Each structure stands twice: as C-alpha cells, then as structure tokens.
Amino acid sequence: MRNFEEKTIASQTIYTGKVVQLQVDDVQLPDGRAAKREIVKHPGAVAVLAITDEGKMVLVRQFRKPLEKTILEIPAGKLEAGEDPGDCAARELEEETGYRATGLTHVVSFYTSPGFSDECLHIYQAEGLTKGEVNPDEDEFVELVECTLDECLERIQSGDIMDAKTVAAVYLWQARVSSGR
Amino acid sequence: MRNFEEKTIASQTIYTGKVVQLQVDDVQLPDGRAAKREIVKHPGAVAVLAITDEGKMVLVRQFRKPLEKTILEIPAGKLEAGEDPGDCAARELEEETGYRATGLTHVVSFYTSPGFSDECLHIYQAEGLTKGEVNPDEDEFVELVECTLDECLERIQSGDIMDAKTVAAVYLWQARVSSGR
User: Fold this and answer.
1) Which long-range contacts (CB under 8 A, 24 or more apart) does A152-159 make?
2) Three-class SS of residue A145?
3) pLDDT, position A140
4) Which positions of chain A have pLDDT values less than 50?
5) Total domain count, chain A
6) Is the pLDDT of residue B124 over 80?
7) Phi and psi dihedrals of A24, rounded to 5?
8) Closest to A47 in 3D by CA, of A81, A18, A85, A83
9) pLDDT value at position B1?
C-alpha cells in the first residue's frame, strides 16, 4: 500500500455549531504541491435495522431541512458526547417509533461522506421488538411507516426511499432473505 | 402524510468553499417553536459499481483528509456544474481505475447525510469493462484494488471497507448474486 497522506500545514476552524464544525485545512499533497481541504466534523450517528414479527421494516418519515422535504429513513439519531452507540440506537428506536428491542446487535459502521466529512454511522439490528409509546425529541416530528421487503425495493426504485443508510439496510435485508439467512 | 415542514425565518451563508457551502437557517418548527439548522450544501456526486469479467469489484484506495486515513471505496467523484451524472461516472471510472465501460446504467440515488447535507450520490452500474491507462485528477492519489464478493464482505466485517456507498454497492451485489440475477 502506497502512502498517500496529506500533511496538514495549517488548520482553521470556520464555524462551530450545535451539530457540525467546519474546518479548512491547508495540506501538502504526496507530490509536494499544496491544496485545501474542507472538512465537516460531526459527532457520529446510529441507525436501527428493525424488522417486525410481520416481516416489515420499521421506517420513519421526517422533514429534512437540507433537502426541504420529508423523506423515509430507518430510525436514526446523532450520538451524544460519550454515549455508547448501542444505547443511542435503543433510545432513538423507542423515541421515534415506540418500538423497544430486547437486543441490539452491531451490524456495520460506515463513513457517510468521507470526501468532506468524518461522520461515522453505526447500524444496529434490533431483535425482539415490542410496541410502546412514541416519544420523539422536542424538535423532531416523525411519522411511523412499516414496509415489506418488496415495498422497500419498490420505494427505492420510485425514489421514495433516497437515504443512504436506509438503502444500505434494505439491500442487506434483501441479501439475507435471498440467501435464506 | 402529515406536514412537518420547517419554515425558513432567516438564512445565513457562513462559508463558500471549493466543495461545500455552509448555511445556517433559523426555522419555525411545525409547533411554532424556533430552531436552528446547520446545512452543508454540496454539488452531488456519482459512484460506479463495476464488476470485472473475473467477478471482482473494482475499488480504489485513497487518502481521505476528514478521516486522516486511506480507505477503500468504489470509484466516485463530485459532479461538475451542469455535468450529466452518467458522463461523470464514465470519467471518474476511467480516471481513477483505467477501466472503460461500454455502458453505464443508473441503479440508485441517495442522500448521504440528510440530517445536515443535501449531497445526493448517484450509483451507476458499469457494463463491458475494458482496461486502459490510469489517469487520476491532479490532486488525487489512488490505488486500484479488485475484490471478489466474499472478499468485499470480509472487508466490511473487518472494517477495511467503511464507506457508505461502497457498503450499499456490496450489499446490492450480494443480493443480486444470492437471488441469481
């Protein structure tokens, strides 16, 4: 493996917000030339792949200001400082959907936009779902939607599901179903 | 479907860079309360799901400054202003890997981080691959890696593949192989 490291020459914090921090770095490329890198720091997030006893995926519809529209996603939320991702997954699942899980197992973690952000998203699989009360965050307005695998695949085709973590979760579910696991 | 729209009261552009633009909006929530939304505007990107005649996925290893490490991803790149995503996919595939495709078919589009960014990523499937010269962008340093499906799944398990679009592409490939398509 060759060394492609970009050495930091200078780093400037442009903005520190509630969710993200914007930083611009001057770097030296492997060939010695200079470049700028715009970096959005993010605390990380979790999402939950939850399939009901009826074989339906638990989804939430919510308004996303960056898109100026409501989209369909698996339950998810930002990590609080120092919070265990598994605890966060359990909390977000219950707050957004009312479902409680007897167990949550880590499935996969990935960087959502490694070109400009360090956000890492951890997907957990929920087991033993039971339905309770919906209790969303103060500034969160969500609607519960439950879909079969075929419905999820149709919604990906039609553009009704257009969220990276949700697309990944649906394909993973499809791969498991197709391979009989 | 209920209306969860967040009305913009004020919008401030904090930073305009080469890749991203940071904007902070004051919004009115559906219940009338006020909140702030931090929004990272991005031109969008494409990525290519390319499987060689030997049944291997075409990947590139590259340094990602936000993560301060090299990661393994499917070939991808930012959209230029007004560029057709299919043309961009063909260009990035050839620049980064040396592979040319006789055809590129749109598979899926998704928002990578809808909570804070409008980045939309379009995945194309490449057909009819032929190998030519690698010719990366001036400030891009990439290494070609080719992996079987089993190797990709192992690399997801081990954390060697930790990129959202690549994880989604591998699961899609697995689902297709498992269902015999």
Assistant:
1) A152/A57, A155/A72, A156/B108, A159/B109
2) strand
3) 64
4) none
5) 2
6) yes
7) -120, 120
8) A85
9) 60
Q: Is the pLDDT of residue B110 over 80?
A: yes
For residue B38, give the nearest of A2, A17, A138 by CB distance.
A17
Task: Tell me, yes or no, whether B115 and B32 share the same domain.
Answer: no
What share of chain B has pLDDT > 90, as a percent? 88
Compute φ and ψ for A52, nearest 5 degrees: -75, 170
CB contact under 8 A, B71 and A115: no
Domain co-membership, B37 together with B100: no
Cross-sheet strand order for the sheet of B120-131 = B76-78, B45-49, B120-131, B99-111
Mutation for A interface: B171, B174, B176, B177, most A CBs within 10 A: B171
Q: What is the spatial order of strands in the sheet that B7-16 belongs to? A: B7-16, B21-28, B34-41
Contact A95, A137 (CB under 8 A): yes
For B35, the domain range is 7-41
B133 touches chain A (CB under 8 A): no
Catalytic residue among B54, B68, B133, B138: B138
Domain identity same for B53 and B127? yes
Q: Is B15 exposed, middle or buried (0-12, 13-18, 19+ CB in 10 A)?
A: middle
- For residue B114, the Cα-to-chain-centroid distance in whole angstroms is 13
Residues of A in contact with B149 (CB under 8 A): none
Active site (annotated) includes residue A138: yes
The two tokens of residue A14 are 């442009």
CATH number, residue B109: 3.90.79.10
Beta B21-28 vs B34-41: how paired, if at all? antiparallel
Closest listed residue to residue B45, CA positions, set B123, B141, B104, B115: B123
Backbone angles phi, psi at B75, to 5 degrees: -55, 140
Residues B86 and B121 in one domain: yes
Q: State whether B163 and B97 are in the same domain.
A: yes
Are B108 and B169 in a shared domain?
Answer: yes
In A88-137, at which residue ranges do the beta strands (DSSP E only) sit?
99-111, 120-131
